[in-house]
Amino acid sequence: MARILAGRDDALLRILAVMAHPTFEQALTARLRTDPGQPFVTFYDDTTGERTELSVTTYANWVAKTAGVLVEDADLSEGSTVRLDLPTHWLGPVLLGACWLVGAEVVGEGADLWVGVPDRVPPSGERMVTGLGPFAARVADPPRGVLDLGALWPGQPDSFLGLPAGPDAVAYDGAGWAELSGAAGTSADRVLTDLNPVTPDGAHLLVASLAGPGSVVWVADADPAGWDHRASVEQATRQVRAPS
């Protein structure tokens, strides 16, 4: 009986979360009101030694700037589609949020815009590259005819000036925001993970943490020998490992 009641409580929480914040913009605004300075996205690269951390406010600023680029430079709007071809990186959650803010659907293939790293650029179509260095700096030698996120985001304001997506916008691989957030649920944990944020499992974790109020520590090229120590240092309350 206890399990049944717990399952019902979890389902109710999912429904209430969707009803309270039927769009990504509303969910993010709610977190800004309650936890503006709290860590939300933390990123480690165990190959380079990088550690980057974005508070809720800093994350929202990056999302707004990137959304401005998607609208003004890539000409996206609600109903557009984007493929995110990125490794595990803190820009993954930023680009997901930017797509959802403008109402662009994240898809696997056949997108209006491809976004990824320079060594993965497809031969044709609308394309945008991003570097993976500090502050998402511009790419040294972007391919001809390809947009460079690092050259464009500095000119954008910290607040999105466009029209945020409505509740009917498709968010991820055919699922609307209500379906996506309902499936993801809520998480108040600080989660340590080596998932890629732009994968389905990674996107669900991001959405759950946004509603949470949780946070995620994303790790690229995770060193198994340092995993437990990092969990302790980052005060992780839950761990999610990518399938081997």
UniProtKB/TrEMBL annotation:
<dbReference type="InterPro" id="IPR017523">
    <property type="entry name" value="Rv3268"/>
</dbReference>
<protein>
    <submittedName>
        <fullName>Acyl-CoA synthetase</fullName>
    </submittedName>
</protein>
